[in-house]
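Researcher: Checking consistency across runs. Here is Ceramide synthase 6 again:
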Amino acid sequence: MAGILAWFWNERFWLPHNVTWADLKNTEEATFPQAEDLYLAFPLAFCIFMVRLIFERFVAKPCAIALNIQANGPQIAQPNAILEKVFTAITKHPDEKRLEGLSKQLDWDVRSIQRWFRQRRNQEKPSTLTRFCESMWRFSFYLYVFTYGVRFLKKTPWLWNTRHCWYNYPYQPLTTDLHYYYILELSFYWSLMFSQFTDIKRKDFGIMFLHHFISVLLITFSYVNNMARVGTLVLCLHDSADALLEAAKMANYAKFQKMCDLLFVMFAMVFITTRLGIFPLWVLNTTLFESWEIVGPYPSWWVFNLLLLLIQGLNCFWSYLIVKIACKAVSKGKVSKDDRSDIESSSDEEDLEPPGKNPHTTTTTNGTGGTNGYLLTGPCSMDD
């Protein structure tokens, strides 16, 4: 184990030439980031999760009820012992051969059986009230952490001149505000990784998990080798659009159509401007070129920039989805129900059959769009 740890913490990988871990030990004159500081993120992530439960129960839910948002879930599939047994024990998505067999056994047409399975899958989806509470929690946290980040960075020289991210690197003292900002962001993304398995299941589960994982790696990585100054720029920049997305989703659930449209347009503009404009021209410019000029490359420098480029790849993917939704909205004159479903669609398509319609009829309406992506949960900062 000692050999593995010595290999993992190799100074020639983590630090610039002629710098050792001993040089970055805390002294009475200066405090530097220490890897063991990051252990604090785990209990804090649990605390954030508990705060979320309390917030959703005692703050978000009363707000939702005041806005007349009901806890009604999707349409319930009619009881059927044979289909229920197939659903629970065999498959939730029967193939054509099985559908034909069930059709003969029940004397139902295939379309009715397909509708039953779709309704049965949709029963497991959360209600609009649950969705609203989740979005309100995310909105509140994103708004708080972005506001804190802006107030903190306004007082720092590297916001106005990114070359200060690298002057005297890595001997840059760790301030209390910077430490709090980093640990809070890291704890939140750990909580997102864990809660993703219990939250609303969405189509982009895999890509969002990858996004959260890369975010945690970036935050951890930049803290350990004291790239925290440029890390704060990445965090704050990526937090800028998140609150707008969650606000648009809340307006959607409350059926405030015009407000939803306006907030979505604002979100799209901020997201594309920050992710495709400011991030590459400002942040990637300093991490790739200014740092090369002032500090010079070393192994962990390459890894850090590779992770940032992966984040930028996700930004391009999500921007494509946003533009696609925006084009659909412009062609229809508003962010219609199908467009909003691109933002909110869950793991299966909803059957929007009118209440009271005979379950054996064959006419269905598909209420969900085909795209999802980052729009489902909001970006993640070093995230997104």
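Researcher: Does this match what you'd expect to see?
Model: One thing to look at in this run: DSSP finds 15 helices and no strands in the chain.
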